[in-house]
Structures
1.
Amino acid sequence: MKRRYAEFSKGIGRQEEDARALAARLGWTVVKVIPEDDTSAFKRRKIKLPDGTTALRTVRPGFRAALDGLASGEYDGLIADDLDRVARDPRDLEDLIDVVESRRPRIPVESVTGSLRLANDADITMARIMCAVANKSSRDTARRVARKHEELAAEGKPGGGGFRGYGYDRSNLEIVPEEAKIVKEIAARILGTWDGWTDEQRAKVDPDAGESLNSIAADLQSRDVPTVTGAPWNSRSVRSVVTKPRVAGLRAHRNEVVGEAVWPAILDRDTWEEVCARLAGRARNVDLGLQRWLTGVLVCSKCDRPLMGWQGNHGVRYWCAKPKGGCGGIAIKAAIVEDEIERQVLDLLGRPKVLEQLRTVADTEVTEDARAELAADEAQLKEMAGMYARREITFAEYREARGIVEKRIRESRALVHARAPRVLRRLLEGDVRANWAAARPADKREVVLALVPGYRVLPHDRSKGNKFDPARLVPITD
């Protein structure tokens, strides 16, 4: 009877032809070909094990399917091109050995190159040695590749591999004019400064919120603007196009900006940073869709965590939400507390001294000293990257120093792109009360935070009945 065997092959074509020729010589019948294209036999990922713990394992559905077929008797044998096509992780090899030795006689395993046979203890010992050598080879390669990428990043050069960056040619060094124009258009639409809107479209766009990513994606798709991969535009691809550091002429490594790039920028640094800040604000529900405008203003008096808008059986309220890590001990009805805070704000806005204070905040610009400090930190970051590239400092030293400087840069950029002054200027133009009534929820929150750091919410005193007590709201002064 001819054996039924599974051919385990990483890749197809020549390897499959060679394996079928070997099967014919052995008198085996091919019943299944299991390719593992684009699946690493070496790289491990963190996965959850059946007992609930996590561990690093290779993720290879094809390999596991082959083991299951051998264990169940669906297949009588296994042929592979080479040992390193089957296992580069010793744990995978041991799993195969366990299955092979589970039957008597042992399940036959053959390879085209002769490197994998598990017919006896000597074969198994040799397979273990060769798998360890293959594993060491993969680790050496991974280490050299990682070091090369670190060096390229420090020098501001592209890393290579993968799809080309949108806006640049395949070398990632030259700008593609047609795509660069789209990048600039997307940035302008996010910032609310695009000149391509019709009057009707412009009237629907808030200059401080910009156009939504979904709206931009739909328009690009309707105009048949191609993406790099040919996939349809969506909010994620629109965001990616304008927030990648490369479009600002910056080199990133492991999701961190490490310095200037050697390729030209499509967006100037200030524009790119403003786009990133605008989108980051949207992600925090600050600029778009913030209906409960006291989120981030009210603080739990029991655990000092911020209260957040919450829909429950008792209606809409602000709650120290347990599902979000809060204590669950403080809650207050949303409509009542919003009315009370609004009353206090409007009362304060009627006082000349408070208006003078707000106008001072609204008119304050970032000083030249602050801008100079930001520029000096960015120059220092570039200088450190050069020192690492010249091997004057180690990567550990470079990374530690970069973390300190980048923290200062983030703080400076937050100041440059602070949103409160713009909100306050709109509020103070003309009738303050009318402007407050017309303000968006996010704008109201900015005004409150300009007046007071927040409010600590005390527990409800049940001895006073169900009536709301404004004394529960204690302004934070520190």
2.
Amino acid sequence: MKKLAVLFAAAALTTVTLAGCSGGQKETAAEAAKESETVTTAEQTAEAETEAPETTAEAEAAAEADEENYDTGDASKDNARNKDEIGENELLVVSFGTSYNDSRRLTIGAIEDAIEKAFPDFAVRRGFTSQIIIDHVKSRDNVAIDNVGEALERAEKNGVRNLVIQPTHLMNGLEYTDLVNEVAEYSDAFDKVAIGKPLLTTDDDFRAVMKAITEATAQYDDGETAICFMGHGTEAESNQVYAKMQDMLTEAGYKNYYVGTVEAAPSLDDVLAAVKEGSYQKVVLEPLMIVAGDHANNDMAGDEDGSWKTAFEDAGYEVTCLVNGLGELEAIQQLFAEHAQAAVDSLTK
């Protein structure tokens, strides 16, 4: 087990040294069983990778689920990846999760598909960290998704020897640390374990993501349009990833690209003020999140007062909303696959 200890130590070191460019939410499967968020709050947190509040009664969560009146797509089209017959090599893709069925399939599912294609010698399986989302999908759609503990138990039961875990988190923070700690509890169950890095870890990652989002929105870059990306935001130090992305965009010449957050800085007001300094007629809004869940559909593209869409419309702009998670972009899927490759390679070192 010496090799396994080294791999975990390396993962823990990465978490500490990269905390300045990280974000995470403290919500393991064990904590999720007793958390008291509403389903909507859980959806918001799914895009955030930030620490989740625990202030609302479970009764309100149940009421929120009962009142759900929107269509998130056909859950049967998604692959829950919770089958046995795994073999000796497994690549477990860990996500917070989302109950928006189409977005789950087009983002998390697409990342899993890309990793499966890249690693034909590994069986790809899924694990979510939000028990509220798991329970909601099960109750509403009768689709069972493993939490991380269940996925690890399934791997152990199936005789997996080499386990690679690739998180789909945007940032490296509390959620990543919780994942490392939970996997460490199973250190005696496998011969070797390695954990891949989240999306925004190195400067090269930032450049790759910047390239992906600017190419995906190039058709709107006409000199008259401000292209605004909405992240979640956190009061933790890791919130600086948004400022870093903004700085890199500006330095690269994308001066009509703006990055803001829902719950931290830069705020909607900050982004709106910055856009007003230009001579734009139109605004494009898109989430800077892996999935397009509640924040993207409501806080960004919603018709209610206070959304980014209505705020920009009230300011006189023609607004286009692109309700697409980052996980839909092939370049983002490939970046996660590259991170998984580095983890696979570490098994032989």
3.
Amino acid sequence: MNRAVFVTGCSSGIGQACAVRLSRAGFRVFAGIRCSPNSVDLPEDVTPVEVDVTSTESVAAASEVIAEALVGNPLWGVVNNAGISIAGPLEAIDLADVSKVLETNLLGPLRIVQTFLPMLRASRGRIVNIGSGEAFLATPLNGPYCMSKHAMEALSESLRLELASSGVFVSVVEPGQTQTAILEKAAGQFSEMEGRLDAARRDFYGPSIRARGAMSERTGMPPDRIAAAVERALSDSNPKPRYFVGLDVRGAALLGRFVPSRLRDLFFCKVLGFPGRALR
């Protein structure tokens, strides 16, 4: 039997690309989606599974569906891809929106791991988490997403150490800017954000918001490049802790690790066009 994997967030973007690529590579793919299976374009041999990663009950129900479909056969891997982004200046963003991001991007993957780990122990399989360059280099006006991806790195590090003796390996695939629904919506989010601010905050943040929106309009890489790294993380006999995809994410990791904070501030304020108020 082909190795079975469960991928979350398969309605579009990286998750959908993973489902397609892994299916072609011979994996038996269970594709986690929040919407109706009929509304998602997936290969015929991919099994859609409705799941809301923010709900313990929904994740448990999905695990039962997959266990029944496998009829006692092992689950080889889970790919924690589901994620959302809500942009805004941290002083003005609704805390309920911050909670949504953390519930989906951080607690969702942990919920998946806690539920599916017994099956993964049985197969000595793989956990693959989708990270971000913003885990290493936090960007202005996208704080909740950066917070969640910073924390995803810590979650993955702790899990990898805790599970080392079990044979279950944990990898993080680190994508650079990718053409996904999150990226496509970003420019509109920044424009709407500026309109929601009061006059004083609009005057303070307006130039930064417009500069950040322009950054989001840059074309990202195709999601299949990230799917290829996910396939390697699931297939390599000696998987890496991290798979970097794209020069921009490698640069972000280097900047975040080795460049002093003041120089990173200067990078954002000068090179990316953000006002330098913080440097005065």
